[in-house]
Every structure is written in C-alpha cells, then in structure tokens.
Design goal:
The chain contains eleven helices and seven strands. By secondary structure, the protein is of the alpha/beta class. Strand 1, helix 2 and strand 2 form a beta-alpha-beta unit.
Length: about 270
C-alpha cells in the first residue's frame, strides 16, 4: 500500500518544512488539527494528524487538494501530457480548464514550473507569474499523488476566510496559523505583493480570532514575521525568534536571513 506523503506536494512561498522538527516535540496532545492558511501544508504533511480540517482563501489550491485526494489517477494522467518548457508553460498558464481535475493538474504544473513556485494573480484573477523552474524540475508522478491522496483521506477541505476556520475549533483542538507575512513595515524580506491580499488590518483581525480561540481552550500555534508590532498583537502568548535564510530571490547571492517569530498559546 502507498505510504502517506510526509513532505509537501507543493512549493510555497514562506513554506514551513523546517518548522516540523522544530515544534513537533513541543506540541500538546490535541484532539483535532486546523490549518486556516494551508498553502503547501508542510506542518500537516509532517505531523499527519488523524483528524484534520484544512482551508485557504485560494480556491484553486483547495480544488487541487480535493482532486488529489479524490482523483489522483486522473490528475496524474493529465500531468503526463504537460511538457516543462517555456512555450508550453505559456499555453497552460493562459488556459482556462473547466473540469475540476484539469484545473487541479494545471495548478500542480504551474506550481512546479513558475518562478519560485509563487502563486500570484492580477486584478482580473489571471495568473501572471513567469516561467522560472530549474532544468531538473519534474512534475509529480502517480506514486507521489497517491501518497498525497493517502495523507489527505478523511481530511475536510474548504475555501473560506480564516475567521470561519478558527471559529469552528473546539477546546483541546490545535490551530496552526501561518498567514502571509506583513509588508506594512517593509523590512522582513518577503514579497511586497502580500499586502495586496492580506493587509495589516487582516493581521489584526487574525490576532483577535487567535486570542479568542485561546481563551476558549484551543491550542494556537502561530508563525509570523518577527516585528514588535506583530508580537504586540499576541499578548500573553509564548514566543521564540527564529532566523532562517529567505529563498525568495532570483539570484541566490541576494538571499538573506530573515527573522520569524513562533507564538504559542500554551506554556
């Protein structure tokens, strides 16, 4: 039988593969797992909780997870017809597939072949990231999709605002929150376009939701930019600062170390 995937299927800006080992031994025993900003799902795939609800505002991402969970063979068959080359990328990027499975295959393809795996759309909702993968890049094969499907079996998946996901968490559940990092202060090394779809007001609203969840007995784990203004939003939470190398740069020589904060509602 195919084993469940333990590493993320998708490349994702600000991905948290490093966080799994960092926090795994410190997590409390929890009933259910909630991730309102699933993105690449690094912590989910690393922990593989038995009962999980994953959500994101990105409908194409959520659809991809649903199709990989339910129709991995069909998605794999469609991916096998897609070539990793600049001209093919342009055609696929400009396509507008109607079926859910073909939309998922397109998303997987663009995620692997777009510059740095960035997902960005313009004001008209059109994906506009240029081709930019390494020569060694390959698309997920059937075994990889089947492994991800195993990990996602029984998982609830939703496209919705983070506030709804957090509101459904019950006492002794664990919420992991990894929002798009703020660009309000313009010194944290992350892409400025985050501010366009996740503002400083959203950051404050998120903190209010997390604080309310903690008060009703939910375990809340937050990763965010290490700014004093961010830390002030989570009064009473335990905190750690982590320095890591940013991977967001066209030139590896231009990549710098950025500071992030890990916030916990429990001691």
């Amino acid at each position: 039988m195919t084993e469940a995937l333990q590493t993320p299927l998708f490349k994702w800006t600000g991905g948290k593969r490093w966080l799994v080992e960092y926090v795994e031994s410190t997590l409390p025993s929890f009933a259910r797992y909630h991730e309102p900003f699933v993105g690449g799902g690094a912590l989910f795939f690393g922990l593989r909780p038995r009962c999980a609800t994953l959500a994101d505002a990105n409908g194409e991402l959520v659809n991809a997870y649903v199709q990989i969970r339910d129709n991995p063979q069909m998605v794999a068959r469609m991916l096998r017809t897609m070539k990793i080359e600049r001209d093919a990328y342009g055609v696929i990027r400009n396509s507008r597939p109607r079926s859910a499975a073909r939309r998922a295959a397109r998303f997987v393809y663009l995620n692997r072949t777009a510059f740095n795996g960035i997902y960005r759309v313009n004001r008209h909702g059109i994906f506009n990231v240029p081709f930019g993968c390494k020569p060694s890049t390959s698309l997920p094969d059937l075994d990889m999709l089947l492994s991800a499907s195993v990990a996602l079996k029984g998982v609830r998946l939703y496209q919705r605002d983070f506030a709804r996901s957090i509101a459904f968490a019950k006492p002794k559940d664990l919420i992991y929150v990894d929002p798009p990092y703020v660009t309000h202060h313009n010194n944290n090394g992350f892409r400025r376009y985050n501010e366009e779809f996740f503002s400083w007001e959203d950051q404050k609203r998120l903190a209010e939701c997390c604080m309310a969840a903690a008060k009703r007995g939910v375990f809340v784990l937050v990763s965010n930019a290490a700014h004093n203004e961010v830390l002030a939003l989570y009064s009473g939470f335990g905190r750690e600062l982590v320095s890591r190398r940013s991977a967001i740069s066209a030139d590896p020589r231009g990549r710098t170390h950025v500071k992030e904060c890990i916030l916990r509602s429990w001691k």
